[in-house]
Amino acid sequence: MKKGYDIVIVGGGIVGCATAFELAKRGVKDILLIEKRFLTAGATGRCGAGIRQQWGSELNARIALESTQIFENLEDYTGYQRSVELHQGGYLLVAYTEKEWAQFQKNLEVQHKLGIDSYALDREACRKKVPYLNLDGVYGGTFCQKDGHANPFHCTQAYAQGAQRMGVDIETYCEVTGFRMEGGRIAGVETTKGYVEAKTVINCANTRAPELAKMVGEEIPVYSERHQALVTEPVAPLIDCMVMSFSRSYYVQQTPHGSFVMGIGPKEAPSHNFNSSWQFLEHNCAVMCEALPILRKLRVVRQWAGQYDMSPDCNPVIDEAESCKNFYSMCGFSGHGFMVSPRVAILMANYLTGQSDDLDIHKFSKKRFETGELLLEPAVV
After folding, report:
1. For residue 185, what is the enclosing H or E element?
2. Model pTM?
3. What pLDDT shows up at residue 272?
4. In sequence order, what are the residues at sequence separation of 6 or more whose Cβ sits closer than 8 angstroms to the Cβ of residue 282?
5. How far apart are CA 92 and CA 339, in angstroms?
6. Any idea what DSSP says for residue 125?
7. Distance (Å, whole) CA 206 – CA 334
8. What's the Cα-to-Cα distance from 277 to each of 43, 228, 289, 349, rounded to whole Å?
9. How high is the pLDDT of residue 222?
């Protein structure tokens, strides 16, 4: 590490690495990215890796659409020499209640306004799309072929290596222990490897972001929520798309090499617990085997836990600290940080370098929780 940098980014997940890349692409020379373990050690490396454009608010649908367009060309975009393993097998969103089915029609109107190629499926069409789907209680579904999944490790490395080629320094196994301020502005970062001067700090530390913000006197209404997932043994292809339900809080997909990855939303208190549980295994398998009975034949290989950085309206906080100028936080993605990371990184990079952007970064200010102008989103697990 050098003595000082123009910008120090804290957090080596995909949001931090993509932001470093976009800033360097815009000509910022002195950038340091700090990660307390290894790149993708946090939420990025534990996510379900889904990428979808089927959202219910125009803001989220647009960010997801523009992020997908970057994911489709990420290797060329970043100069990555390997594949990020993007597979656009589509998402089948399943409605199990009349109210949910009605909301899906409203969501489609929002998506079509933006040119997203999504469409409704009746019960039998859902069965044709996923032959093993149990139709009991199903009202219908929506589908978008451009949705899919990618490898979060490769996607993050694509951004990180691209950033490094443009001169970004990346320091792993380096933990932030504090910040220094001068005259109400950020002045530097205390780390386990020494002190670094900084003109600007971007806090991309996911569930640990509120703790770092408190070090400069800032309160962010974001909390940690454990989410668990499991993977099965590989088998011959059975389904090509992601199957997801908001009302039953499940998602399941078959990876290119044959394993099924699946998870179900929790009902538990906020915590930083990274331990997986037998209760999840039991509940997840019961729900998934009802939705897709053929899964009963599969053996579970392993399960794991990760953390969602949840905000009150399930949308991110992207804001400058009131108590410390030039200290920014990008957190609260509520489980969707991976799929929107390309566009939010551009948004932040454009803002900090004074470039125009037709998205308003101030929509993500934490002030919305005080004014009540929440970014409500109906299409979340």
Report:
1. strand 185-191
2. 0.96
3. 83
4. none
5. 17
6. H
7. 9
8. 18, 8, 18, 39
9. 96
At 56, list the tokens.
Answer: 């219910």
- What is the pLDDT at residue 266? 79
**CA gap 204, 280 in Å, rounded:** 28
Distance CA 183, CA 326 (A): 12
Start-end of H helices in 26-151: 58-71, 74-78, 98-113, 123-129
Residue 140 has phi, psi (to 5 degrees) of 160, -165
What whole-number distance in Å separates Cα of residue 329 and Cα of residue 138? Answer: 40
Classify each residue of 104-120 as buried b or exposed e, where b means 16 or more C-beta atoms within 10 Å of its C-beta: beebbebbeeeebebeb
Please tell me what DSSP assigns to residue 81. S
Question: Which H helix or E strand runs over 280?
Answer: helix 278-291
| Structure token digits, residue 343 | 């566009």
| 10-residue mean pLDDT series, the chain (381 residues) | 97 98 97 98 94 97 98 98 96 97 98 98 97 97 97 98 98 98 98 98 97 97 94 96 96 93 85 88 96 96 94 96 97 96 98 97 96 90 75
Contact 64, 339 (CB under 8 A): yes
> Pick from 23, 15, 7: which is nearest to 353 by CA?
23
User: Which two structure tokens, joined as six digits, stand for 205?
Assistant: 């530390």
Residue 358 tokens read as 């037709």
SS3 content of the chain, % helix, strand, coil (to 5): 30, 25, 40
Q: Which of 72, 134, 141, 71 is nearest to 100 (CA)?
A: 141
- 14 contacts: CB under 8 Å, gap ≥ 6: 40, 44, 152, 155, 156, 159, 337, 338, 341
Q: What is the pLDDT of residue 268?
A: 77
- The closest of 37, 242, 264 to 145, measured between CA atoms, is 242
Helix axes 337-352, 152-165, angle to 10 degrees: 20
CA torsion sign for 158, 159, 160, 161 is positive
H, E, C per residue of 285-343? HHHHHHHCHHHHHCCEEEEEEEEEEECCCCCCEEEECCCCECEEEEECCCCCHHHHHHH
Q: What residues pair up with 27 in beta bridges, in sequence order?
A: none
